[in-house]
Write a structure and sequence with these properties.
There is one protein chain. The chain is α/β, with parallel strands linked by helices. It has 12 helices and 11 strands.
């Protein structure tokens, strides 16, 4: 029986699904991400780690002498010590595309929530008020007729762009090279100047860190909305806070933060024009089912020395 460590806060439905992998000779040991790094005793016999967000460190790999695979449940591998994995001959795989539908839908949700001031409306209604201040009533907006700029054009924007178009938005995007799609590819500076909504869809790398710094945020269209379902460190959060406070940006929708979990006293959380979620854009039951199927196949292949899907290191 192969042993897998799954770093995830699994509920009863998911635990029942994981138990079925015993039929494939895979025993899945769940260690909640909220509990921090797993103890060495739990790592001693595992042959694979199924990883979501809690970092997979060199120390964890050293404590797992039988480890053959670190399987990212998702795409970004910036939370895995790739150098340590390579040094130990541990394969690292991700799974592009499995969560694209969920992330595309969350990006759309954040756009709509920001434009309709959902945070203010929710708080007002729960407090017993039946409206919000007049100056806010004049700020509701629609996607139709607005320009949405997609920064990066992988699988998520490919799903999101036609939906935005169907809702009446004008779509533009920026990428390393133009794609065979019906929407215009422009430079990042052109996109920031033209877009009423800017949505980030990039991996976090040395080149993309702080991509939206103070200078670039200042170039954004006055009254624009920023949506980030990618990685928090793509954005200079202090500059974003200043732009939201000054009114240069109208709102933001954030599923990710530079430091996670985000501190309860983070100043962005105090703003009524910021819609937030705890890095769960990727998470649906459908995403998990697709992801775990790939993870199981790769685990079996890694232990048997077979071909791996989506190997990145």
């Amino acid at each position: 029986m192969m042993r897998v460590l799954f770093q995830y806060d699994a509920g009863p439905r998911l635990r029942a699904e994981l138990a079925r992998f015993r039929q494939q000779d895979i025993e899945v040991l769940v260690h909640p991400e909220s509990a921090g790094a797993p103890p060495d005793a739990l790592l001693a016999d595992v042959q694979a780690i199924w990883h979501v967000l809690q970092p997979v460190t060199a120390q964890m790999m050293a404590a797992a002498p039988r480890l053959a695979l670190v399987q990212k449940i998702g795409v970004g591998v910036n939370t895995i010590d790739l150098a340590a994995a390579q040094q130990r001959g541990i394969a690292v795989c991700n799974m592009p595309g499995t969560n694209s539908q969920a992330v595309a839908e969350m990006a759309l949700l954040l756009m709509l929530s920001a434009l309709r001031q959902q945070v203010r409306l929710d708080r007002a209604c729960r407090s017993g008020a039946w409206s919000v201040a007049p100056q806010y009533l004049e700020g509701f907006g629609e996607l139709a007729g607005r320009t949405v700029g997609l920064v990066g054009f992988g699988e998520v924007p490919r799903r999101l762009a036609p939906v935005l178009q169907a809702l009446g938005a004008d779509v533009i995007y920026t990428a390393r090279s133009p794609k065979d799609v019906p929407w215009p590819c422009v430079s990042l500076d052109q996109l920031l100047a033209r877009a009423d909504v800017v949505s980030l869809h990039l991996p976090l790398t040395d080149a993309s860190a702080q991509l939206l710094n103070a200078e670039r945020i200042a170039r954004m269209k006055a009254g624009a909305v920023l949506v980030n379902t990618a990685r928090g460190a793509l954005v200079d959060e202090a500059a974003l806070l200043a732009a939201l406070g000054s009114g240069h940006l109208a709102a933001a929708g954030l599923d990710v933060f530079a430091e996670e979990p985000v501190a309860a006293d983070h100043p962005l959380l105090a703003l009524d024009n910021v819609v937030v979620a705890p890095h769960l854009a990727w998470l649906t039951n459908e995403t998990l089912s697709r992801s775990l199927s790939i993870a199981a196949r790769n685990t079996l292949a890694a232990v048997a020395g077979g071909e791996l899907e989506f190997r990145v290191a």
